[in-house]
Recover the amino acids of this structure.
């Protein structure tokens, strides 16, 4: 495995680039062989180094979630290693990135302070870095070359990527298939030649973990050989790993074992143990049965001696023959929410740290800003994923019903109760997460009961049933200022401290800087496979709009627009909007400057929009709320603002 050891001179790179563009010839003495091959591929893909980048696809939230699910083993094993790498590169203004075999970024850790917002988004989960779209770059080129590589500054084929220095190493499955790539990208001025060594070791760590746990190499009655030139090297990261089936065929290896045994990946599947070692399988099995932990000397056919320890292929061979190999890995739903806004990014970083904890959380943000979506993502990334996520909207339930809904009731507890009684939402959340939306709207009597549940960790159904122990992660959400509610005597202070282990803030859409990324993400999800654009004046108006219904409203507007879009149309324009929404949008867009309204104007804009929507829906509140893309509760609340 080698990377471009000596960086080509800048002048040489420029000369080589000119010659390539002039005639398709690349003077290889000016660039390394890997770089030369990659530049040629980029040129053949029709990419222009200095021109506008052709639209590299960016996976939608749903596509990303699917990719993470499909590659969950890789993602799970990579994450701790990425954290380790991030620690090693701390303070160097760099990011640690995991991409799949198709070059799509799956996870990213860290942040690049020196780059623009757009450039930051391009390094976030969902972005594609295959050579086909971005030309020579460490992720795409390491994948294409199947080897570790550094791509520094102007070695990037596209000039717009010259601000980066990147070191990447591919991650291979035990059968040699490409699984993905690990990368450290940073400011080109901070190029450090040791980074590639770190990245390569980190990729090896991931491969090691994958080898230890994968079904295909460890789930039958064969043996695994740990190999090293020194006995002390066995069990370390530099050991060779070779999986041998019980019939003697080779089932998998890591790169170190291939090197020690003089093998190439394509030969692996065709080889048997006697093709690579002088010792017959029978002898290895004998060693294993008699003294499995003792290292022995084995001999390659070239005569080289190696130390080997023989182990059962299945770690718990005797004890649990069909035990699942590994707990399902988390789907990185939090990463999918990171679309480039700095405040949201900070919230998501905190959310990621808090997801494995049981600390009660309070999510604060306007209605429709995505509080429940965030809570669900945290549940999906924490240890309770796979268990229930129970969401209760405390504002949507009539006061008389909240109690029964939350705490459950015994048979015949009250008039109108179901005959068989009800478990209650709190008990349904047992083992999982209870999400109480609009907690600020919970009546005081109910607050007292909830407080008792949180203190006693048990719930007593209405009608005098026995208390039942419950265990859940509590996440509450509110758009209200709970401290002000406490001062006004509407919220219990002791409950506030119980449920507010930490407050996470979800920014309002009008305060976010990633409207375009959100638009693109939602459009891709609504119309997969079509790259839709938004007409320029409309985009400016959307940017200036106050978005009283936040992401819920945006989703509703885009759903309508996509429904009105003809199959041949690729641009969303004013004609694709509901008339009332277009009207709300026009005033700020036609006024000079089209700047965002001042915060004190927002209330009146929102009240005006509600008045119009109500008038147009003949006073039907549900219809008006639907038109605005907000909930009935929000509409009532905003009317009174
Ligand atoms: N990141 C996102 N991408 C796309 N759509 C989103 C995103 N976040 C939220 N939405 C959309 O906005 C809607 C509202 O989100 P959510 O229910 O999480 O908001 P909320 O803050 O809990 O609202 P409320 O307080 O009114 O219950 C979702 O149903 C979804 O359609």
């Amino acid at each position: 495995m080698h990377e471009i050891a000596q960086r080509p001179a800048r002048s040489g790179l420029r000369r080589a680039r000119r010659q390539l563009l002039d005639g398709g010839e690349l003077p290889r003495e000016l660039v390394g062989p890997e770089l030369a091959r990659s530049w040629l591929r980029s040129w053949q893909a029709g990419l222009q180094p200095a021109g506008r980048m052709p639209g590299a696809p960016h996976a939608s939230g749903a596509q990303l979630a699917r990719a993470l699910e499909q590659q969950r083993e890789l993602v799970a094993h990579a994450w701790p290693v990425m954290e380790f790498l991030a620690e090693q590169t701390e303070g160097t203004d760099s990011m640690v990135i995991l991409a799949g075999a198709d070059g799509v970024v799956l996870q990213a850790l860290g942040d690049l302070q020196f780059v623009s917002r757009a450039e930051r988004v391009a390094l976030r989960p969902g972005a594609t870095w295959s050579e086909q779209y971005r030309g020579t770059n460490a992720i795409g080129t390491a994948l294409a070359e199947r080897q570790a590589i550094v791509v520094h500054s102007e070695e990037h084929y596209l000039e717009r990527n010259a601000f980066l220095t990147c070191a990447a190493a591919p991650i291979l499955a035990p059968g040699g298939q490409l699984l993905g790539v690990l990368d450290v990208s940073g400011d080109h001025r901070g190029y450090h030649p040791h980074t590639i060594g770190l990245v390569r070791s980190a990729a090896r760590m991931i491969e090691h973990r994958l080898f230890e746990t994968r079904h295909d190499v460890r789930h039958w009655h064969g043996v695994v050989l740990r190999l090293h030139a020194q006995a002390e090297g066995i069990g370390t990261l530099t050991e060779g790993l070779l999986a041998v089936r019980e019939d003697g065929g080779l089932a998998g290896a890591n790169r170190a074992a291939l090197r020690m045994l003089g093998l190439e990946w394509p030969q692996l599947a065709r080889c048997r143990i006697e093709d690579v070692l002088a010792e017959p399988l029978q002898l290895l099995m004998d060693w294993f049965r008699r003294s499995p932990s003792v290292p022995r000397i084995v001999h390659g056919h070239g005569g080289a001696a190696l130390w080997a320890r023989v182990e059962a292929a299945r770690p718990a061979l005797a004890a649990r023959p069909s035990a699942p190999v590994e707990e399902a890995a988390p789907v990185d739903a939090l990463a999918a929410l990171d679309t480039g806004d700095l405040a949201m990014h900070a919230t998501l970083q905190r959310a990621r740290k808090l997801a494995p904890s049981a600390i009660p959380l309070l999510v604060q943000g306007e209605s429709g800003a995505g509080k429940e979506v965030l809570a669900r993502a945290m549940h999906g990334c924490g240890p309770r994923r796979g268990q229930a996520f129970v969401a209760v909207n405390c504002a949507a339930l009539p006061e008389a019903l909240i109690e029964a809904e939350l705490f459950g009731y015994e048979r015949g507890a009250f008039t109108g109760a179901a005959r068989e009684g009800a478990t209650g939402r709190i008990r349904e959340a047992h083992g999982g997460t209870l999400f109480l939306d609009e907690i600020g709207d919970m009546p005081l009597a109910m607050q007292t009961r909830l407080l008792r549940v949180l203190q006693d960790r048990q719930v007593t159904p209405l009608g005098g049933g026995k208390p039942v122990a419950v265990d859940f992660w509590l996440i509450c959400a509110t758009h209200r200022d709970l401290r002000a509610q406490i001062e006004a005597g509407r919220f219990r202070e002791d409950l506030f401290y119980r449920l507010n282990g930490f407050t996470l803030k979800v920014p309002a859409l009008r305060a976010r800087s990633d409207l375009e990324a959100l638009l693109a993400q939602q459009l891709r999800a609504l119309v997969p496979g079509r790259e839709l654009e938004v007409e320029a004046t409309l985009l400016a108006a959307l940017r200036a709009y106050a978005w009283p219904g936040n992401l819920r409203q945006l989703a509703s507007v885009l759903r309508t627009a996509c429904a009105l879009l003809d199959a041949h149309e690729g641009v969303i324009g004013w004609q694709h909007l509901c008339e009332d929404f277009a009207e709300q949008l026009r005033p700020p867009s036609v006024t000079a400057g089209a700047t965002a309204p001042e915060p004190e104007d927002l209330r009146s804009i929102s009240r005006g929009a509600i008045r119009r929507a109500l008038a147009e829906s003949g006073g039907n509140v549900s219809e008006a709320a639907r038109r605005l893309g907000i909930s009935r509760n929000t509409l009532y609340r905003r009317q009174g603002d």
